[in-house]
C-alpha cells in the first residue's frame, strides 16, 4: 500500500529526518509552498509511517498538530486532506473574475438550465456500450465516423447542406473550424479576410491572432453588401447568411447569387457561419448558401447554441480541394476531438433526442422573446427591436440622441449586462443594444426592461439638452 504514495515520500519529503517535529515542519512547508494543494489527500498515518520508516504515533502526532493549526482536515471515513485556510495566504493572487451580473443579457449562450441532462447521460451510456475497443484509441482526426454520418444526414435534412461523411470535419466548436480555415488560407497565399460590419468582435480577433487581416464590409437590410466586398482585395469572406450577427438580417436571394458569382470571379472562398439557424419562430427555414455551390463554400456550425458551449463540438463541411490539407492540420494541432462526446451526440441525433430538445427549446425561447418584446412595447415603445424572427438575441434600436455606449455603462453600474451595438462595428451606425434573451426567464426579462427605462434619460430632457 505504501508504494501508492511514493511521490510524497520521494519528492515532497525526501530529506525529512525521522523525527516528528521535522516531518511536521516538512509537511507544513510543502503546504505553504503550494506543493501540496488544498484538497490533496494525504496517506494514512500507517502508510506514511511505513514510507518514512518511523512509528505510526509520530505521524499521528504530526497530523494532529497540523489539523490544530488549520493546515489539514481530518474527517472520519474521508482520510486526511490539505485545508484551504492554511495555504490561502501563500497562494498566488487570483485574477479578478467576470462581474457577477444581476441580469446578464449577453449573447451566444443558450438556456443552460434546459440542457437535456438525462438524455445526454442516457445517450452517453448507450453510445459507450456500442463502441468497439478499437474506438477507444486515438481518434480519427477528421472525427468519429458515426457522428459524421449522422451529421451528413441531419444537415441535409435541416439545412439543405450538400455533404457526405467524408467531407465533414469535426472540430472543437466553430472557433476551431474557423481557426483551421484561416490558417489554411494564410498558407495558401491569402493576406486578408472580409468580415461583415457589424460582426462578433471575437471573429476579428481570431483572424488577427492567426495571421490575417480582417477587412470590414458593411451590412444593410438585405445582408452583406456584395458590391462593397468586390471593391476589396479579399478572396475570402466570413458571412452569417441565415441570421446576420448581430443585426439578424437574412442575406437576400439576389445577394446570395451575387456572392457566389464574386467567389467564382476571384477564385475565392465563402466561409458560412451557420451559428444559430435552427432557432426560428416567425419565418420558414432557409437553406444554407453552401447548397448552391459546395465547391466555393466552407460551411461551419456547432452545438453551442443548441445544447451547451461546454460540449465543445462543432463541424465544418469543406470543399474537396481543402479537405485533405485541413484534416492534416487538425491532426498536427490536437490529434482530433474526443471520441466519447462525439459518439454521444451521434446517438442523440440518431435516436431523435436532438430534435426533441430543439422542439422544446424553440418553444422556451419564443416565450422568452415574446416577454421581452411585450415589455419593450409597454415601457419603451420608442425602442425598436430588430431581427426578432429567429435566433437567441435581438438588437434594440434606440431613439436618436441616446449614446448606446453610455447607456450600456449606466446599465452595467446597475448590475445589468447589455452590450452596446457600437462595440460590434467599425463604422458609425444607429445606436442600439445587443440583447440575448435565452438565459433569462420572462420575469427577469421584464425586470431588465424596467432597468432599461430607469437608466435612460427622459427623451424630452435629452432633446432640451441637445438643443441647448
TrEMBL record:
GO molecular function: transaminase activity
Any one Pfam family match given in the protein's UniProt record, by short name: Aminotran_1_2
UniProtKB keywords: Aminotransferase, DNA-binding, Pyridoxal phosphate, Transcription, Transcription regulation, Transferase
Coiled coil: none
Domain of life, source organism: Bacteria
Keyword hit for DNA-binding: yes
Domain (HTH gntR-type) ranges: 17-85
SMART domains: HTH_GNTR
Protein family per UniProt: In the C-terminal section; belongs to the class-I pyridoxal-phosphate-dependent aminotransferase family.
Name of the protein in question: GntR family transcriptional regulator/MocR family aminotransferase
Amino acid at each position: 500500500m505504501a508504494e501508492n504514495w511514493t511521490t510524497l515520500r520521494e519528492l515532497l519529503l525526501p530529506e525529512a529526518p525521522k523525527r516528528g517535529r521535522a516531518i511536521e515542519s516538512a509537511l507544513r512547508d510543502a503546504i505553504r509552498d503550494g506543493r501540496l494543494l488544498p484538497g490533496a489527500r494525504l496517506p494514512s498515518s500507517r502508510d506514511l509511517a511505513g514510507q518514512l520508516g518511523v512509528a505510526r504515533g509520530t505521524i499521528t502526532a504530526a497530523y494532529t498538530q497540523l489539523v490544530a493549526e488549520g493546515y489539514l482536515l481530518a474527517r472520519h471515513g474521508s482520510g486526511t486532506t490539505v485545508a484551504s485556510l492554511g495555504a490561502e495566504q501563500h497562494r498566488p493572487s487570483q485574477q479578478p473574475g467576470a462581474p457577477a451580473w444581476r441580469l446578464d443579457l449577453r449573447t451566444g449562450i443558450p438556456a443552460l438550465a434546459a440542457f437535456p441532462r438525462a438524455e445526454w447521460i442516457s445517450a452517453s451510456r448507450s453510445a459507450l456500450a456500442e463502441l468497439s475497443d478499437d474506438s477507444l484509441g486515438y481518434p480519427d482526426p477528421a472525427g468519429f465516423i458515426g457522428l459524421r454520418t449522422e451529421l451528413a444526414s441531419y444537415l441535409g435534412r435541416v439545412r439543405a447542406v450538400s455533404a457526405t461523411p467524408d467531407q465533414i470535419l469535426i472540430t472543437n466548436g466553430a472557433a476551431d473550424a474557423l481557426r483551421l480555415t484561416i490558417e489554411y488560407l494564410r498558407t495558401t497565399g491569402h493576406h486578408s479576410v472580409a468580415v461583415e460590419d457589424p460582426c462578433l468582435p471575437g471573429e476579428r480577433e481570431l483572424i488577427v491572432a492567426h495571421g490575417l487581416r480582417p477587412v470590414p464590409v458593411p451590412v444593410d437590410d438585405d445582408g452583406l453588401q456584395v458590391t462593397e466586398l468586390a471593391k476589396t482585395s479579399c478572396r475570402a469572406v466570413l458571412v452569417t447568411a441565415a441570421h446576420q450577427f448581430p443585426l439578424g438580417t437574412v442575406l437576400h436571394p439576389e445577394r446570395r447569387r451575387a456572392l457566389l458569382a464574386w467567389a467564382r470571379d476571384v477564385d475565392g472562398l465563402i466561409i458560412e457561419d451557420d451559428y444559430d439557424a435552427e432557432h426560428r419562430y416567425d419565418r420558414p427555414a432557409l437553406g444554407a448558401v453552401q447548397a448552391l455551390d459546395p465547391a466555393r463554400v466552407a460551411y461551419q456550425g456547432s452545438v453551442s447554441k443548441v445544447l451547451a458551449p461546454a460540449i465543445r463540438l462543432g463541424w465544418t463541411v469543406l470543399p474537396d480541394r481543402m479537405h485533405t490539407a485541413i484534416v492534416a492540420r487538425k491532426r498536427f494541432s490536437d490529434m482530433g476531438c474526443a471520441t466519447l462526446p462525439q459518439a454521444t451526440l451521434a446517438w442523440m441525433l440518431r435516436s431523435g433526442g436532438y430534435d426533441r430538445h430543439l422542439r422544446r427549446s424553440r418553444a422556451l425561447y419564443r416565450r422568452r422573446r415574446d416577454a421581452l418584446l411585450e415589455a419593450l412595447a409597454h415601457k419603451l415603445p420608442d425602442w425598436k427591436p430588430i431581427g426578432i424572427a429567429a435566433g437567441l438575441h435581438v438588437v434594440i434600436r434606440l431613439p436618436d440622441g441616446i449614446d448606446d455606449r453610455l447607456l450600456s455603462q449606466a446599465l452595467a453600474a446597475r448590475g445589468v449586462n447589455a452590450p452596446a451595438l457600437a462595440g460590434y462595428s467599425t463604422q458609425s451606425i444607429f445606436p442600439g443594444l445587443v440583447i440575448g434573451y435565452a438565459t433569462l426567464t420572462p420575469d427577469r426579462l421584464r425586470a431588465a426592461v424596467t432597468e432599461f427605462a430607469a437608466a435612460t434619460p427622459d427623451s424630452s430632457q435629452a432633446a432640451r439638452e441637445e438643443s441647448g
